[in-house]
Amino acid sequence: MDKGLLIVVSGPSGAGKGTVMNKLIAGGDYALSVSATTRSPREGEQDGINYFFKTREEFEKMIADNEFLEYAEFCGNYYGTPLSYVNQKLDEGKNVILEIEVKGAFQVKEKCPEAVLIFLAPPSMKELEERLVGRGTESPEVIAERLARAMEELDLIDDYDYVVINDDVDEAVADIRSIVKAEQRRAARNIGINKKIKGVD
Ligand code: 5GP
After folding, report:
1. Rounded mean pLDDT of the chain?
2. Which numbered atom of ligand 1 lies nearest the CA of 50?
3. d(CA 146, CA 16)
4. Is the Cβ atom of 80 under 6 angstroms away from ligand 1?
5. Residue 1: what pLDDT?
């Protein structure tokens, strides 16, 4: 069986990554990796579904035990991608999505150059601020910190393979599906297809 594609989606907090990812995985053909974090759960978030919520000690033990594909600190908390789930799903032929911040994304690209990096951007900073304030889950200080971080992250778009603007959720989802389809059709990802076509496989 062919291995699945490793797809990394990054974008500023409030760019709508969660909404876009939920729509994308609803079709059943993508596996969304669940990260570990030391951040406290937001209202409604469940352990093992949104994140694996860990203490700093637990997280640092996972680092020491080489359990992460990548990890990074973001606004004072650790976030990391457990390696085992990703490998298992890729081996099953599923396309795996990592919804992670920029430092982690570049670690993945270094370890797995075949990964596809997509930057999900808001239409404007004004819109981003309105979404973050409207969400009502963070204090003004945290919002200010996340907006400052967004300004830095936007300068890294050039290092991504693709950029998708999340103005309309359905369009953003369709864009990501098109990107994945095109990537799957790359000749370099279909080595040996000539033999299959010739029937000499
Ligand atoms: P939040 O606290 O809003 O859930 O996430 C904060 C940031 O951490 C987001 O940009 C999110 O994409 C990123 N993030 C979530 N999980 C991971 C992970 O496993 N690794 C890395 N590097 N970033 C993550």
Report:
1. 94
2. 4
3. 14
4. yes
5. 61
Look up residue 47 and give its two tokens: 């352990």
CA quadruple 160, 77, 94, 6: dihedral, nearest 10: 20
Quick one: which H or E segment has residue 47?
none
CB of 5 within 6 A of ligand 1: the answer is no
Q: For residue 3, report the distance from its CA to the centre of ligand 1, in Å.
A: 25
Q: Which helix (H) or strand (E) holds 19?
A: helix 17-26
Q: What is the pLDDT of residues 87-112, one digit of tens each?
A: 999 999 999 999 999 999 999 999 99
Report CA Rg, the chain. Answer: 18
Substitution site in 32, 74, 120 for ligand 1 pocket (most atoms within 8 Å of beta carbon): 74
Identity at 27, one-letter amino acid code: G
pTM above 0.85, yes or no: yes
